[in-house]
Amino acid sequence: MTLLSATDHQAAEPRIHWQAHQSTNAEMPENTMAAMQYAWELGGIPEIDIRQTADGIIIGMHDPTPKRTTSASEADQDRLIAECTFEQVQAWDAGIKFSEKFRGEKVPALEQILAVLAGHPERELYLDYKQVDLEKLAELIGRYGLGRQIIFCHREHENCKTMKRLAPAVRTMLWIPDGEIEGNFANALETGFDSLDIIQLHLKDAEAGGEWRYKVGRDYLQQALSRLSETDRELEVLPFHFDQDSLFALLDIGIRRFAVDEPKVFVETLSRYRQRQV
């Protein structure tokens, strides 16, 4: 019998992918270039929430207004992003509310991020659809030739279908929130997971303590993973809270895609899991 070295064993293991959910906003100012670089350097895939300005520039912004995350003036705080020009958006500081350390961070245009991504074919990027013209988005991705590095995400299956039609190389992910999982997953299954590459399930903690942490049961996750694997699709989970035991349990099921709010903690925990496997 040939024994695998630690390096060989890791090489034989399926790769574990992780998304920096909402631009790692627990560790970095969300939807900034700093957050993108942070996730890439940790070995993950950053997420940028995409909206469009009044003059047609696609930017990174989660909320419909700049109030929560930027230094926008009182006059602009409650103004819709769709009513602001890109020049107005660039006047705001997108880092200072998170930490003085990030003073000067700007709300990036998606094109600025794609220009960086184009120089790194090994990197990927999640685009969480908020409010953009999908034809314009597809044209922008195509201009940079980045389809295979992009994962388009939304909770509406029809938007994923539209994006796949406009940009066939782009992978699409349907995310399903707590409370809608069984129904929406069944609906997607009925279509044969039409135009989907990944389904993400949101994992909230169960109210009562027990051996299994989450509302979504272990058996259900195993069945969902099996259904998706049969059609060469992938299952991703977003555990809003995890510790070593709960993360190890998800990995033991065979889940290899995660979205996390604390990337650094996730990477450290994942390292301990891999050491246990050697």
CATH class: Alpha Beta
Number-wise, the strands total 9
The helix/strand class is alpha/beta
**Helix and strand element order:** HEHEEHHEHEHEHEHEHEH
Shape annotation: globular
CATH architecture assignment: Alpha-Beta Barrel
Portion of residues within helices: 25-40%
What do the pLDDT scores average to?
93
The unreliable regions are 1-12
The number of domains: 1
- Report how far the terminal alpha carbons are from each other: 16 Å
Number of helices: 10
Task: Provide the β-strand percentage band.
Answer: 15-25%
CATH superfamily label: Phosphatidylinositol (PI) phosphodiesterase
Q: In this structure, how is the largest beta sheet organized?
A: 9 strands, mixed
What would the CATH topology be? Answer: TIM Barrel
The rounded Rg comes to 19 Å
Oligomerization state: single chain
Pfam family, one: GDPD
Organism: Paenibacillus piri
Protein name: Glycerophosphodiester phosphodiesterase family protein
GO molecular function, one term: phosphoric diester hydrolase activity
Could you describe the 3D structure shown?
This protein has 278 residues and is of the alpha/beta class. It has a single domain, classed as Phosphatidylinositol (PI) phosphodiesterase (TIM Barrel), CATH 3.20.20.190. It is 36% helix and 18% strand. The chain has ten helices and nine strands. It has helices spanning 6-12, 33-42, 86-90, 110-117, 134-144, 157-166, 181-190, 218-230, 244-253, 263-277, and strands spanning 17-20, 45-52, 58-60, 125-131, 150-154, 171-176, 198-203, 234-239, 257-260. Strands 1, 2, 3, 4, 5, 6, 7, 8 and 9 form a nine-stranded mixed β-sheet that branches. Strand 7 (198-203), helix 8 and strand 8 form a beta-alpha-beta unit. The chain is globular. It starts with 5 loop residues before the first helix and ends with a helix. The model is unreliable at 1-12 (pLDDT under 50). One of its GO terms (molecular function) is phosphoric diester hydrolase activity. Residues 16-270 form the GP-PDE domain.
